[in-house]
Amino acid sequence: MLWGRHADAPRPDMRGERLSLPDGAEIRIRPIEPADAAELGAAFSRLTAVTRYGRFLGDLDHITPRQLDYLTTVDHVDHEALAAFEAETGMGIGVARYVRDAHDPSLAEVAVVVADAWQGRRVGTALLGRLSDRAYAAGVERLVGRLIVGNKAACALAAHLGTPMRESRGAGTLELTVRLDPRWSDGTPIAPIAP
């Protein structure tokens, strides 16, 4: 046994910004990388069907190796993804990403997913805040997100990003476009923990 864990158990990834959520839980946030593919696949399998539907806007019961490669091999400029991990175990608990529009580099599509047990605990807020700061620094001025009509949590997150510009409805979906503020913050302390 090593530090109370079985010797062949993977060691938690201790890299990234360490944060304390309002409920006292600690997480780490860092840019996603190809080595995260296995944990991303495992995290996807732990999502409920409702959460998967909300993220992918359709029924998706499994994720392919090709999809995992796309989701974890990003250039961190035109395609950025930040992952949140439970600080103690290293278990993946959320991802926020943007993909820049190929025809309009000032626009990017954004998506966020948080593990069911971590929803409502401000993980999405922490991820999206850091992602929007990175997007703004990379020259993205507007973010567009597609969500299920009635997803109040996602609408509340979008409202904090910046100035709402456009809202359009489709078949059961809502598309929101916001102009990013230079420094995003909702005023709720999710403070980095000093090393």
How would you describe this structure to a colleague?
This protein has 195 residues and is α+β, with helices and mostly antiparallel strands. Helix content is 26%, strand content 30%. It has helices at residues 37-46, 49-56, 65-72, 123-137, 152-161; strands spanning 17-20, 26-31, 79-86, 92-100, 107-114, 142-148, 162-169, 173-180. The chain has an 8-stranded mixed β-sheet with strand order 1-2-3-4-5-6-8-7, with helices on both faces. A hairpin with a 6-residue loop joins strand 4 and strand 5.
Summarize the structure.
With 195 residues, the protein is an alpha+beta fold. The protein has helices spanning 37-46, 49-56, 65-72, 123-137, 152-161; strands at 17-20, 26-31, 79-86, 92-100, 107-114, 142-148, 162-169, 173-180.
Q: In angstroms, what separates the terminal alpha carbons?
A: 26 Å
Tally the helices: what do you get? 5
Q: In the CATH hierarchy, what is the class? A: Alpha Beta
Helix share of residues?
Answer: 25-40%
**H and E string:** EEHHHEEEHEHEE
* Strand content bin: 25-35%
Q: Let me know the number of strands.
A: 8
CATH evolutionary superfamily? Gcn5-related N-acetyltransferase (GNAT)
Give the overall shape, derived from the CA principal axes.
globular
Helix and strand topology:
Layout (H helix, E strand, L loop, with lengths): L16 E4 L5 E6 L5 H10 L2 H8 L8 H8 L6 E8 L5 E9 L6 E8 L8 H15 L4 E7 L3 H10 E8 L3 E8 L15
Helix pairs in contact: 1-3
